[in-house]
Amino acid sequence: MKHIFIVAALALLTACTQTPDWDYDKSANFSNYKTFAWVENASLTKDTNNYQISGLMEKRVRNAVNNQLSKQLGMQLVDVAQADVLVNYHASVDKELEVDSFNVGYGARWGYWGTGFNHDVSAREYEVGTLVIDIIDRESNQLIWRGAKDGRLKKKQTPSQREAAIKETVANILSNFPPKAQQ
Which pTM value belongs to this model? Predict the structure, then answer.
């Protein structure tokens, strides 16, 4: 089993410096979107490789998205039937390999100085978490905006650190919603 929970995955994205990735439907009129609701079972999707998100992390993600859309963007959380857009999110964790190679060119052997090359390789496996937020036009049921951020995960965070990490990651992802330049 790769992971029992994705708690660490989402909470640890703040350690990364990667810029979020965005995509959107250029034909969508984002100025018409004033209300939002959550897709039922938002964190459960077919492409998450059976990762389970804990109830604590689910609450943190939803609160961070609600806060960002409501307080920062002026949108209102409403029932699904009245929403202009629906919000969904996905989370995943993948393993990456970091390889360092070192070459040494000088040394001494049996009392003589000389040149030679010593090659040393070091490899470390680490985890990369990805959080994807989707915005769907409720009326057409079409994806109109997607933002994602991934980063190297840190372990052993306190609940306060996890909450802060989620808030920062969600704000970073949603920093281009609605899209600033519709080109």
Answer: 0.73
